[in-house]
Design brief:
The chain contains eight helices and five strands; from the N terminus they run H-H-E-E-E-E-H-H-H-H-E-H-H. The protein is an alpha+beta fold. The strands form two sheets. The chain has a three-stranded mixed sheet with strand order 1-2-5, with no helix packed on it. It has a two-stranded antiparallel sheet with strand order 3-4. The relative contact order is 0.19.
């Protein structure tokens, strides 16, 4: 039996339900309202969350029923992943599908669900409102670029982020 974590030894199609669900880092970026340019297909993220997104926890408020309650909610699968050009570059599903490792702040690596927030990757405290509170004609006013970028703190190793230099003693 391998000592390697499951995301390094299995394809997405081979994951069981528990493994699949644990790959979600809880950032909430995929639950932001996105706009697509009809001419060139460019995807623009907004700071508006899905009506079910809890901006504090960065989780779905009704995950089990999300696709029934939100008509354009997409259930991510190993089969449709390659078609979803709007998933953030930090998304663990994209990383694993491409044969890349998870970032240090991913809860499966760090062992702590809060590291995704501490690294500045999540939408916590960055969601302006939910989609029901913003008139459709104003959604484009909320286009933001941060969901497409990797925050500076997320690039550092966990050791660099957590370590604090010790003061030197005189003498």
């Amino acid at each position: 039996m391998s000592d390697e974590p499951f995301w390094k030894t299995k394809s997405l199609a081979e994951l069981n339900d528990s493994e699949w669900e644990s790959l979600c880092d809880g950032c909430g970026r995929c639950c932001l309202v996105k706009l697509e340019d009809e001419d060139d297909g460019t995807i623009y993220f907004t700071d508006i969350g899905c009506r079910l997104l809890d901006g504090a926890s960065c989780r779905c408020g009704d995950y089990a029923n999300r696709t029934a309650r939100v008509h354009d909610c997409v259930r991510l699968t190993a089969d449709n992943l390659s078609e979803l050009n709007w998933l953030p570059s930090t998304c663990a599903y994209r990383l694993v599908a491409a044969g890349r490792d998870l970032y240090w702040w991913h809860p499966l690596v760090s062992g702590d669900a809060e590291t995704v927030h501490a690294a500045g990757v999540s939408v916590r405290d960055r969601v302006f409102s939910d989609e029901d509170a913003v008139p459709e004609e104003q959604v484009a006013d909320h286009i933001v670029s941060w969901p497409t970028r990797l925050p500076k703190g997320a690039k550092q190793s966990s050791r660099a982020v957590r370590s604090v230099p010790r003061p030197r003693r005189p003498g």
